[in-house]
Amino acid sequence: MARIEQRTGSLVAAGTGVIAVTYGLVRFGYGLHLPTLVSEFGLPAAVAGAIAAGSFAGYCAAALLAQWLITLGHPRRTLWTACALATVGSLVTAAAWSSGSLAVGVVVAGSAAGAASPALVTAVASTVHAATADRAQAVVNSGTGVGVVVGGLLAAALAGQWRLLWVGFAVAAVSVTWWADQRTTWPTGPAAPRAGASRPWADLAALRPSLLAAVLAGAGSAAVWTFGRDLLTTTGGMPATTTALLWSVLGGAGILGASSGDLVHRLGPHLAWAATAVVMAAATAVLVVLPDLVPLAALALAAFGGSYVALSGVLIVCAARITPHRAAGSTAILFVALTTGQALGAATLGALADATSPAVSFLSAAALILLSSVAAARRPSDLVPAPARESR
Hints:
- It contains 15 helices and no strands.
- The chain is mostly helical.
- The protein has one domain: Growth Hormone, Chain: A (Up-down Bundle), CATH 1.20.1250.
- α11 crosses α12.
- The longest helix is centred in the middle third of the chain and has 35 residues.
- The relative contact order is 0.16.
- Pfam families: MFS_1.
- It is found in: Cell membrane.
- This is MFS transporter.
- It comes from Geodermatophilus maliterrae.
- It is a multi-pass membrane protein.
């Protein structure tokens, strides 16, 4: 028993590391380094937003590929696919010589997270005891915050050395993937569907309220993840070191997302979503209204980071509850919806900022996040599975 618990703890730690690299360092590292990239490559807001949108779109493509691989019984191969994308993309980004090559690196690297999440959902489900699986999934998911903290601290300590940092991201991707692979009891062969398990299209119907809510929240969240640090640097006039440390505050609060599993148990999926969405929208609005006040910016970023990771954790738990027979597939679908929203939001909000102002762009983003809670409230009963329908 002690050996099983030790293996479970090691997997959770390793999985958290994989999420930290693929999400916190690689996927959201573009937004962290955007002020430097804008200066070095001369990127207008619309182009910067388009590159971010490409990264989010790459995530969606990787998530769909991951779902296909897992359906065929290859979750381990899916994990290493995520590693390959993160490694190659990071190295191309580090060597970027033009805005075009930068875009290629960022898109490839950002897609890695799309394969990592479904692979780790399967890894946790096949290795961790069912009684603690929800909590383990939430802890692994909170690795986003860990990665954002580390990324911010590294950017502050190694200001101007962004190319070296991206090389380090590639090395870290290989290391944590190997660790997670070694600690996982991988299922053998394709998972046999349970009797009475619904077909994919039936799953989509059950997930519909969550899908719409995820798209809207994703679109709104793109403002902070893509343009947040640049806003504080340009509009707020804060020093680069200060904004890098503030980025770490965002990530540190995101680690609290590990409690999202407990939040769903206490409030239920709909109320948990509404609570996190309201906090995230308020944080987005406050950040743009007073971007030159460090304490207020720190508070807003902390609120945003914690609520965003908790919100994505709610999606994971909802997927497992609504379709326990296809938890990994449903997680991929919901995260594709979240990231599709981020792709649309990054491109649209970047263009809106160029056409109007950052304030209009960020306030529009806050409105979209609030709308996501309305969308989820349309049929809250769909967010909770009907136990009677699940055959064992």
